[in-house]
Please model this.
Amino acid sequence: MSRSMAAPSPPSRPGATSWASSPTPKSPAPRGFCCCSSPWPGWVPPRPSRRFHAIDAGGDVQLIPSMDLMRGRLVRLRHGDPKQATFYDLSPEAWLEQLAEAGARRIHLVDLDGAFGQPRQGAFTGFPARFPAIRFQLGGGLRSRAAIQEALDLGFEAVVGTLAVEQPTALRGLPGGCIVAALDLKGDRVVTHGWQSPSVCASTDVFEALLTLGFDRALVTDVSRDGTLAGPGLEAAAWVAKEGFQVQASGGLKDLADLGPLSGLPGVVGAISGKALMEGFIPLDDPRTRAALEGGA
Model:
């Protein structure tokens, strides 16, 4: 069942939109990793990079806010399930203003209506022109070459999931630097169509096809961790990065400390955060947050 909640209230800043107040959230206890239960045998959690320290919160890993939109409203889903939706009272425009002021340099937009087969939303199409200092990447429902080209023409980088997995050759000729392959993983299987369907292709075959075509940027989501604040899916990110991709890791990020282990993974260049930022687990007024938002690739 969906529910609605107000976002937490950060310290007021000139020009910032005030939020409804709520109690200060408490971060859940960190969870360990058990190699014996991993779908990637022999995987060992990395040590945080020595480049990670108190001021530079992410080393070479850029913190990328995620804005998920459903019916024009900000929302977070648990495990990608629309029946487990939390809607936020803050408008997308107000939240975007907050992120821009906090130092965001890249923002990940998700059209959940499009992802679940509904008509794609158009309310955010003007964001790239309105915020030229921010690089926007758009995903959700980009399942045709025409839809991808439309996103590129509007100034977005295109995050392509189902089409990239099922028909990678359809991307041939598109600029590799503007395409991000959405590799959404349940265990060691790629899932498509809004995370509802497992791919019939082996994951390694999907990886090889994309890399052969020159698409080496990937947004890797550990679906089991999405919206849980359980910590990032290090195994999934490490696996895909090892195959040769530049990886943005998504799913489970709970606080700034989670950027440390990610910075120790070669090939991981970004970390997507939705719920942790929206609910104040990663505070926008922390100097380390600004450093992480501004840094990375």
Summary: The chain is about 25% helix and 25% strand. The chain has one domain: 62-294. Residues 151 and 158 are 6 Å apart (CA to CA). The radius of gyration is 18 Å.
